[in-house]
Structure formats: structure tokens, C-alpha cells
Amino acid sequence: xxxxxxxxxxxPDLEAESGPGGTLVFRDGGQFCVxxxxxxxxxxxxxxxxxxxxxxxxxxxxxxxxx
Length: 67
Description:
The protein is of the alpha+beta class. It has helices spanning about 5-10, 55-65; strands at about 15-20, 25-30, 30-35, 50. Strand 2 (about 25-30) and strand 3 form a beta hairpin. The longest helix is centred in the last third of the chain and has 12 residues, at about 55-65.
């Protein structure tokens, strides 16, 4: 688990919820975002995905990461 993941997990303004496989799910603008435990940043990580709904973001994460 990265420091950045921990920060997102405990950020009260983000209102992140637990997702499948230890991920976090939260709203990011008009979309939902899912990040994995190894998340550092969008530029450095591949364990994240977006979707217009929570379910779509989770499905996109599963396709992208194979999890």
C-alpha cells in the first residue's frame, strides 16, 4: 500500500469507499475513479480506472488490471 493510497483512503473530503480487492472508489469530477493499493499517480501508475458510474469504473479497472 502506497503513501498516496493511504492519503486518499483517509481524506475526509474525498469520501472514498472500499471497492473490490482492496481498491478505493470515489467521485472525481463528474466521474467515478477506482485506484488500487499500488497507486502513486496517474502518470506513474496503471492501477486506476474511470467510469461514468461506480460499476463502470470497477469494470474498467478489472479490464485494465486483470483483477
